[in-house]
């Protein structure tokens, strides 16, 4: 992360953590269109904020949402939640 | 040799050219031959000239740095628009028309030039009207612009926050929006130096915004970078067909983004004289669209009838 931009990272991660319950509700509602949009944004920003795993998960999630593949989306959301619980910022 | 250089005072010519270079001028009320003459003079100092119909006078005055208007070529609608516009306007008219006070009582930047006028006089008048670089924008926006201004249009607030912080850290001002329609409106209002445009946005998408920008005489030379998470090569082709200046796939590193933006700002500034000049007919009497291409070094211009 370039100098001066580090302060953007904690709120970014916090927003992603808060998103997990919303994503699970979208899955429960079968709202794959909205899931796809959120996943698309995750793909587009994860690596830019220094988290290439988030971009990878976002890409897989977007593809699964496009295919309306519920079980695959559920598995990826579990992976995403697990990653966000484990990831820590090192200053 | 430009008209400014032909005036016989090299220092003055340099000052005039430096001040007027890279500006956008709207022409209104001139017939085809006169419009071409004014355009050639303006293109000769590396600025752009667009001819507008008088029905578009208010709109064109808003998007141009200054207007050159032939009073006798305007009908009542155009004269009303001219009288109420707050943009810098140079009015050409016969002495008799000026004496009759047709264009009197202005509180806005306005200058008048008797007909017939010389090429050098036109440049000197425009120079006086617009003042130092940034002067016209200062009149239009109430604030002089020092830093480059980038318009960022993306529906992902995390992305716009990162882009905005990246550019601001390097002294580049930013305005942001989350949808395409607002992006178009803002582009016309703030006249940014560059647009970073997401493809997938609510309302109208980035391709539609880009297409509209390229068809708008006041915006068509604006540098645009498409910034998108779409991986489809067809999107790259479409962006290229719509004359995007750059196409960056997300995720993008902030440093790479900054580098591309700075490079394009720099390139665009240097190559201003090679832009395509488009003159639309309107009240100027022309038909269709005429395109100027101008060689920056020789100032040689070519005019095509489309």
Description:
The complex is a heterodimer of chains A (91) and B (306). Chain A is mainly alpha-helical and 91 residues long. Chain A has a single domain, classed as HPT domain (Four Helix Bundle (Hemerythrin (Met), subunit A), Up-down Bundle). Chain A has helices at residues 9-29, 32-45, 52-66, 70-86. In chain A, helix 1 runs antiparallel to helix 4 (70-86) and helix 2 runs antiparallel to helix 3 (52-66). Chain A is elongated and about 40 Å long. Chain B is of the alpha/beta class. Chain B has two domains: 3-141 and 273-305, Rossmann fold (3-Layer(aba) Sandwich), CATH 3.40.50; 149-270, Response regulator (Rossmann fold), CATH 3.40.50.2300. In chain B, the strands form three sheets. A five-stranded parallel beta sheet of chain B has the order 2-1-3-4-5, sandwiched between helices. In chain B, strand 4, helix 6 (95-99) and strand 5 (110-114) form a beta-alpha-beta unit. In chain B, helix 9 crosses helix 13 (254-270) and helix 10 (180-190) runs parallel beside helix 11. Classes of the chains: A mainly alpha (91), B alpha/beta (306). Chain A binds chain B through residues 1-5, 8, 12, 15, 40-41, 43-49, 55, and chain B through 156, 158-159, 161-162, 165-166, 169, 200, 229, 250-255, 258.
